[in-house]
Automatic annotation (TrEMBL):
Protein name according to UniProt: PTS system transcriptional activator
Annotated PRD domain residues: 501-605
UniProt xrefs under SUPFAM superfamilies: P-loop containing nucleoside triphosphate hydrolases, Phoshotransferase/anion transport protein, PTS system fructose IIA component-like, PTS-regulatory domain, PRD
Gene Ontology molecular-function annotations: ATP binding; transferase activity
Amino acid sequence: MEEQILQIIKDEDSKNPLTDEEIASRLQVFREDVTTVRRKHHIPDSRKRRKPVIFEDMKRILTESPDLSDRGLTRMLEDAGYRIGKYAAGKLREELLELWTPSVACREKENASPAPVYAKHAEYAEHTESGAEDDRANVFSAFVGFDGSMKTQITRAQAAVLYPPRGLHCLIYGPSGVGKSFLAELMHEYACGSENFGKDAPYFEFNCADYADNPQLLLAQLFGYSKGAFTGAADNKKGVVELCNGGILFLDEVHRLLPEGQEILFYLMDKGRFRRLGEVDTQRESHVMVIAATTENPQSSLLLTFRRRIPMVIEIPSLKDRPAGEKLQFILRFFQRESRRLGKQIKIRQQALWCLLGGDCPGNVGQLKSDIQVCCAKAFLEGRARKDGRITVSFPSLTENLRKGYVPDRITKEIKELCPDDCYVFPDDSGEDAGKSGAETFLEGFNIYESLEEKYDQLLRDGLRERDIEVQLTDEIESRFQRHIHEFQKSGIREDEIASIVGDDILSMTRDICDLARKRLPGLEEQVVFPLAIHLNMAMERMRSHGRMVYPGMENIRQQSYEDYEAACYAVDEIQKKYYLTLPEEEKAFLAMYFRKFRKKDMAQEGRIAVLVVSHGPVASAMAQVANAIMGTEHAVGVDMNLWDTPAQMAEKTVDMARRVNQGKGCIVLADMGSLLNVGQKIREETGMRVRVLSRTDTMMVVEAVRKTMWTDESLNEIADELDKIKLTGTREQAEARKKAILCLCITGQGAAVKLKEHLTERLKSNLSGTVIVTRGYIEDSSIERIIANTEKEYEILAIVGTINPESGTYPFISVSRIYSPEGIGELRGILKRSAMFEENQLSEVISPDHIYIRTEAEFKDQIIDEAVGHMEEEGLVRQEFLLSVYKREGMMTTRLSQGIAIPHGDPGLVTKPVISVTKLDKPVLWDGVNTVDVIFILGIQEDSRKYFEQLYQIISDESMVSAIRASRTREEIWNLLCKNTKSVN
């Protein structure tokens, strides 16, 4: 195949090179395979292969007719044999004219006298004649649009830097997230080595918002202070201005300075002189170029006297005001970054690209980057679920805001020409952040503030109170800290890498904080320094961008980790004095969490009993996948044996997988039949593991095994015995004869338990559905085990709520303090829903495997509806007119629900026998012109069929169940999920 691809490219028409898609179509192979071969041999894509050829013909045409219109140029190129549109020709013309001037060619041809040549900066043409100048000018190529819509701004930036003798003071303004700080950094890089600045010209970034209301602190930080200038000033200290002599001082958020603060800078900008705080007679000199940045209108936010001192003003427009081509550059750059991070190629569907290009980004480039990270994460998970390893970003992968804002009519011809097909990015492509260190990659994923702020805002939009939000986010923060610290320990990042990312100042400040904390916490480990440095760097960035410091669990930290919190308060107070910083109160809570984690040595995760599912044929992996999806974990592991494997080969595979999943607590092997039941002894002999093997496994047994190993502290034998009991004695059928109950426990059974019952009855009205709430007291019997056992004789216990944990391990326990929070009620509500879902399901009466469809190819919703309703009609379940009634309902209102599910339905009067069909698609289809779906339930139900819809809705409202349906490979698996353990309706 590789030779064929290379031969096709070699023989192609150089004026119209073949795209990867066209080559793949000829050879009947995947487009990705063609792209991989082409890149392996360093062959550019079709556009780049054609560019040298078409440029030569365009030069010839434009030399003869410099004023030719784009339409005329397109016509002449077509006459020359090119297949090209007017827009593409116009873009190529713009690109060519950046490199070549027709008039120069004409003069050479006609031997005319030369006309003046204008350099990029006419007033400083001598600078651009040197190769070094050209090399330095290339630094601006990292700024998207440097040779397009931002060309004027880049020219101004270059001129400001080169203006003698020390550059022009400059003001950059524009909305948040457009790249003001980045442009300032590029200006400094451009300045280094120029005549105005030395090779190692210093650069300091100073965020004015930190000192907006404190001119005295501003003075001390900017200009330094002399010994004795104020209480605590034990030594002379240089300020930022003095350290920045001969370099560039970047004043971010300059509009946050009060008028007094702006006036403080006048003398420095005019004369290059200043005094340290506390000095009277001494005059010091520092010549700096000031670059100020603001998100506000300079006319209204800055003093006229301040604006007069800044002659060069550069405006950076918002992302929506940039050309679509430049927005595409941003999009591909961010996808490239994610591709390198994942180490995989990413395929971006055409519709997803159109949506990203045509959608609004109020947060500009920063929000676009965040949106792309989110959609890549979703696509990655979808690839994991499919088990094909491919990352495909499609329309459903995009964020909800992007999908909601997608309007097909807004997709212009320009966008369609920019993205005529799907797009691929590869991890080995060169990009602006190639060669990024491990520390930088780790740092990008370490920002806890962003995700917390997003979740905080979402909960506010959902109408939750501040107190309820606090409860919900506290556990989120805890788990994120645990995860990030665990990842950091595995990363092996060196100190020099951390210093290169966060800077020596942050690293030094972090060490000071840890040294101060050790005065109160002698056991604080040295390992805390590096992750804490990364956290503090993120905190500083957050403060500079005025992001909220969302930490709703401060009170919990104060109460649960009093020593750590006190140490954090002490360290923060001392650091603020030493470094002239003002850290938010919430930061103390974050520091306390780090201290707690690195003092208690609780980083290691406790092992659990492994669950291994083995079977003949491709059954085990499917059962494990469904069980994991239902339980929200990846604990169960499936091993599929080939039907032709010998018993020895099967045993070898099972032993090998048992070694891999072993966490030190033993393993439960759930097998189907035959020789697999004899593998337990083999595992024990070769690995030394404790193991129990159970036979005749089904999906619900795997679910129960995962539940017990993840949620309880039962031993290996206890879990295995209970699973065996379920299988052999039909415990489930016996349990159905008992009423379901929530057991409320307190000391007497009359006090807190009764109050709990009243609280739960009120809060769970819509979820109890026959479940009773039983109160019991510890004083009823000397053994809590007997109290529970006696209750089990009469009731099927779903969960225990109480003042003291009975530590039975068999049932989920929710404490009194937790049950009065939304999170605790939510947990109990979930237990009730799952119980109702599996034990009282009646859907088997209306759903049969014959009406479940798994489609790998379906382009339109009409195909899906026509096929499913056609089968209903053939079996006499609906009348002929039912199909038309379905389409009428679709025309009235969309039947799409959240999570990519649709429930089309027709007139109940045209249904002769209730039926529900289920269609699962491998590829989503457009449903209502805007949104896509991949799971469709067509409802043929009558007016008295409300119970079926309620049970179906209960299932599809559960995200884990929907995920399990999507992960299913056969119609039987889907039917089991929807209808297993059903009750008949009398």
